[in-house]
Design brief:
Elements: E1 23-24, E2 35-36, H1 37-45, E3 61-71, H2 81-95, E4 100-111, H3 113-116, H4 122-128, E5 134-139, E6 147-148, H5 152-155, E7 164-167, H6 177-185, E8 210-211, E9 214-215, E10 250-252, E11 258-260, H7 280-293, E12 320-323, E13 327-331, E14 340-346, E15 355-359, E16 363-367, E17 374-382, E18 395-399, E19 404-409, E20 419-425, E21 431-437, H8 440-446, E22 453-457, E23 460-468, E24 473-480, E25 487-493, E26 496-502, E27 509-512, E28 520-521, E29 527-534, E30 540-547, E31 552-554, E32 564-566, E33 574-581, E34 586-593, E35 598-605, E36 609-616, E37 623-630, E38 635-642
Parallel strand pairs: 3-4, 3-5, 5-7, 12-18
Antiparallel strand pairs: 1-2, 6-7, 8-9, 10-11, 13-16, 14-15, 14-17, 17-18, 19-20, 20-22, 21-23, 23-24, 25-26, 26-28, 27-29, 29-30, 30-31, 32-33, 33-36, 34-35, 34-37, 37-38
């Protein structure tokens, strides 16, 4: 599994300003998007009927994004996936009120040190664009800017349909660059258009009527459609440099009307942390922009937005104390529709988490966690159409001052009990061991074992608390796993019974109760036939199918659950048999050796639910046996080892 980690730097070249076409760009290192005077006049003259729509009445627009993560020639330095997903959700949060849904069409990697570290970035659009998507490139640094895009109604869509270019060091949590540049991409000018490179009017002095032939916007909205950003619900803005939102920003327009510049608008140059919205006319503009100026964004079919089930099975459990300081395993269950999992764990706060990774696994190992410290953690599922699922509630665990190596031998089969766990303490001394698990039968066998080793274990999660003679404790949860369970299906196909096998560990050996060793059983009379399969590790499963010339019938194998034999292996021959029953039935319990010879038969009456029987098989020699539980309508079996 490849993990991706953030690299912070500074950024690549922005569009070249030619003498033939005068354009306006800021003086400071932030936005490199440029609009010509001619382009802005075209913007003022565009059709504005869509501005009559308000939030809640827009059509929903789905915009595919292809993220291009640019790295070094050797494949390093990419923007971290965890940060990409965060930035995508910040973007979505702003544009929700415009009824725009951004989804990830693809994530691509570009290995080119020239593009990555400050070479010309225009060729990235030409060489790598998906022409039916919004292409967003993340590079290490650009000269003098954090990002740039193209306002389509003023300058066209950009080279090869353009896109957005972003610098990684302007993409920290709370940075507004990406949201600002997406505003440009969807046809929003700066709120201060016309004041680029100009000083604002002195306090108490009226603004001029025009600057360089460009009208200055008035506070009474009398020229709001032909000056400034061309929207009437955004007040005039005369500040074209970065500015903080806690200083006096009252100015007088050309008529002497006093007004306050809006620091909360994302298309202004107020500092990060000031911006929080787009106004209604701006929301209407971005909603209409794909159909009006970037129709290729609508070429792909509308995707199915896959909701994601919440993540369960979270370990360690909440407020687990004194975990192994050698390593801690954080784990969770796989959840429906999740392609990735975003895990954060921290000793301090989630603004700068100690661990911030995206993985396709359902676990993460913290090696050598901080001795004696506490961690908080959370995880969320992600897919490309639903990036912004919530994190799980925050969970807390603490680390012991003790550490240990944990050695696990997994069970050979899902029904076997031949696994083991060994705890090797790294600090010398005397220790007591307290074992437990959720299975009541197994728990009764292990809870009094004061040893660093327990054996004869089946697949299960086991817990151990280790206490030193000084009173220090270590708590660990250990999984004993097993190969996937064998699955057998039998169907009548014409005049044959056909078995299929999956799971377990191939290759398989199989046999029918009439001696046939083929998956297909033909030339048979009506009746019931038992099929047995054994995989490479000796794991075994049986099933029964019924055959007749008129219809197909499969025995309801679910009437008898998987039978459990404990202990298994057994040294004394005294074996506990546990049989889950869907209904009360009479059972025939038969013991067979590996040649198929029946050695022992017992008849038992069961009740609905869990049934436990004690069997004395001390007469059997050491070896491997098959135990069958058979009713009139079902059969289950398990392997038993006598030592």
């Amino acid at each position: 599994m490849r993990y991706f980690y953030i690299l912070l730097a500074v950024f690549t070249t922005f569009p070249i300003i030619t003498q033939a076409q005068h354009k306006h760009a800021q003086n400071v290192s932030w936005c490199g998007t440029e609009i010509s005077d001619e382009g802005m006049q075209a913007f003022y003259q565009r059709d504005k009927s869509h501005l009559n729509l308000k939030t809640g009445n827009y059509p929903t627009v789905y915009i595919p994004i292809v993220y291009h993560l640019v790295g070094e020639d050797n494949g390093t330095g990419y923007y971290e996936l965890s940060e990409l997903f965060r930035a995508h959700c910040e973007l979505q949060d702003l544009f929700n009120n415009a009824d725009i849904v951004f989804y990830i069409k693809d994530i691509q990697y570009v290995d080119n040190s020239n593009y990555y570290s400050g070479g010309s970035t225009y060729p990235l659009f030409t060489n790598y664009n998906d022409r039916d998507a919004c292409n967003v490139f993340l590079v290490s640094q650009m000269s003098g800017v954090c990002g740039y895009s193209f306002v389509p109604s003023t300058s066209g869509p950009g080279p090869n349909r353009g896109g957005i270019m972003l610098a990684m060091n302007c993409m920290e949590p709370g940075n507004t660059t990406y949201r600002h540049e997406m505003g440009h991409y969807l046809n929003l000018p700066h709120t201060f258009y016309g004041w680029e490179g100009e000083n604002p009017p002195a306090i108490g002095t009226n603004a001029p009527n025009s600057i360089g032939g460009r009208l200055v916007e008035r506070a009474d909205q009398s020229n709001c459609l032909s000056s400034g950003d061309g929207f009437c619900d955004t007040p005039p803005d005369y500040l074209s440099d970065r500015w903080t939102c806690n200083f006096a920003r009252e100015y007088r327009d050309p008529n002497g009307i006093l007004f306050t510049i809006d620091e909360k608008n994302y298309m202004s140059y107020s500092n990060d942390g000031c911006s929080s919205y787009l106004k209604d006319d701006q929301l209407a503009e971005v909603n209409a922009a794909p159909a009006s100026y970037r129709p290729y964004l609508l070429n792909d079919p509308i995707p199915t937005i896959d909701t994601i089930a919440s993540v369960g099975g979270l370990l360690p459990e909440q407020n687990t104390f004194n975990l192994n300081s050698n390593e801690v395993i954080i784990s969770w269950n796989r959840t429906t529709n999740a392609d990735y999992y975003h895990l954060q764990a921290t000793r301090f706060n989630f603004n700068n988490p100690t661990i911030n990774v995206v993985t396709q696994d359902t676990f993460y190992i913290i090696s050598n966690p901080a001795n004696g410290d506490s961690y908080e953690w959370r995880v969320k599922p992600v897919n490309f159409t639903y990036v912004c699922a919530p994190f799980t509630p925050i969970r807390t665990f603490s680390i012991s001052t003790l550490s240990a190596e944990v050695n696990v031998n997994n069970s050979s089969c899902i029904q076997n009990t031949d696994g083991s766990i060994e705890i090797i303490m790294n600090q010398p001394g005397s220790y007591d061991y307290y074992w437990s698990c959720s299975d009541p039968f197994v728990n009764s066998d292990i809870q009094n074992v004061n040893s660093n080793v327990i054996s004869n274990l089946g697949p299960e999660t086991y817990t151990v608390t280790v206490v030193s003679n000084a009173g220090d404790t270590l708590f660990s949860q250990v999984n004993v796993d097993a190969p996937d369970e064998l699955i057998v299906n039998i169907n009548q196909v014409g005049n044959e019974l056909v078995a299929s096998v999956s799971g377990g560990t191939p290759p398989y050996s199989y046999i029918w109760d009439n001696g046939s060793e083929s998956l297909t059983l033909g030339n048979i009379e009506s009746g019931d036939y038992t099929f047995i399969v054994i995989d490479q590790l000796g794991c075994q499963k049986s099933d029964m199918g019924s055959f007749n010339n008129q219809a197909t019938g499969i025995i309801d194998q679910n009437l008898i659950g998987n039978i459990i034999l404990a202990p298994n292996p057994s040294q004394s021959g005294l074996v506990k048999l546990v049989v889950p029953m869907k209904t009360a039935e009479s059972l025939e319990i038969s013991i067979m050796d590996v040649s198929g010879k029946v050695l022992n038969i017992q008849n038992l009456q069961t009740k609905q639910g869990l049934n436990t029987f004690q069997m004395n098989l001390s007469m059997l020699s050491k070896g491997v046996y098959i135990v069958y539980a058979r009713s009139y309508v079902a059969v289950q079996s398990a392997k038993l080892v006598i030592r």
